Amino acid sequence: MHDLCTYRAYNSHRKKEPSARFGFVPMNQETLDPRLLLATMRNYLEQLREEGLEGLPSRSGGGLEFDSDGSARLGAALAAPDQSEIATGSPGDRQSSPSPGPVVLARSLFSANPGLAEVSDLSALRTYIGDCQRCKLSPTRTHIVFGVGDPKAQLMFIGEGPGADEDLKGEPFVGRAGQLLTDIIERGMGVRRSEVYIANVIKCRPPGNRNPEGDEVAACEPFLFRQIELVGPKVIVGLGTFAVQALLRLKTPISKLRGVWHDFHGIKLMPTFHPAYLLRNPGDKRLVWSDIQEVMRFLGLAAPRRGDRR
Question: pTM here?
């Protein structure tokens, strides 16, 4: 338990009490229920991971590290991130970070999938993917969640991967987080959801909604890259830590990446928090709205009047 106390002390500068923020309650006989403790700890770890914290210090010099399934384990403290990866200063002062080389990277990915570079539209790409068995996610999925929206949209949203609702319906962002994303698009930006394009880094749901693993991303990445090329958006909005880190090849926390323009193979990329994060932390909606306003300014979109919201 001292790791939690250490984190509370470390986090005491925050305006909101960490125990309230992460759903902790005073310990008594009822709260010692193992199921409640596990659920509380999972919420706590998910919150830390979304904020980009990958380890917690302990007195022995070790750290609390996250496994791919969201569980925690004790191990050596993680090395500090390369300072060149971290954007500093206020959003208006920061510089955009370059991506690792233009479409050449995507073409090299296509080489493992003969004929992919010749696919001419999204419908043909979906046919090319077929009943995909290219990674270990295929046996547990219900549907491949390909993408939805205007095939020539100026604006593209990219998230991490499908959740339970998306897996059942075969469409990205249809659960509670999806409704919030729809509100951001339609009520905030004044455009219809059908006028943007929405996809994910991977197209099959990981078991238990865990983070996608490296081999799963590698199997799906060529199709996402071709999807982006075929849509040809002016702007990509990256939703959440995992999606943005996968696109930019960085391990920088989303809290340091958001609000700043980045380059993704010649396309403007704006990172922001995932809608699921906002459901747990509604106070950060103002930060996402600030990021979305930057996107609207770049695209020349005026904020809708109350009566004009779609």
Answer: 0.69
